[in-house]
Amino acid sequence: MNEQNVVIIGGGPAGYVAAIRAAQLGARVALVEKDRLGGTCLNRGCIPTKALVRSVEVLLEAKRANEFGIEIGNVKTNFQKIMARKNNIVSQLVSGVEHLMKSNKISVYIGTGHILSPHLVKVDDEEIATRKIIIATSPS
Hints:
The protein is α/β, with parallel strands linked by helices. The protein has a single domain (2-135), classed as 3-Layer(bba) Sandwich (FAD/NAD(P)-binding domain), CATH 3.50.50. It is built from 4 helices and 6 strands; from the N terminus they run E-H-E-H-H-H-E-E-E-E. The protein has a 6-stranded mixed sheet, covered by helices on one side. The longest helix is centred in the middle third of the chain and has 25 residues, at 79-103.
């Protein structure tokens, strides 16, 4: 059985910031995330949406280029490249969060955390004994 001072359930901004701060204060920390680190905003919400919106903004500017005396010809979109750019941005940011976990010596568990008692969390087949549990999950 693994032993930690703090187990945090939820790998979004609230969870990973809490994990980093606890580690900075000297705690042995485990972070449990059911999907990818970064949470909804980073993986499926704010960040991917902004990346897609930016591609549309560039497309619209290109279509208006003639108004500024710039002739660029027929402007076309490549949906696969737009999605690849979005996915690359998300992957880079997720990698940044993963790096923060490693550099702060935070144990990351990918799976669903189950609280068995006030001092015991189970992730898949592994049990983690802990002094404190922080629940930092999103409602989605």
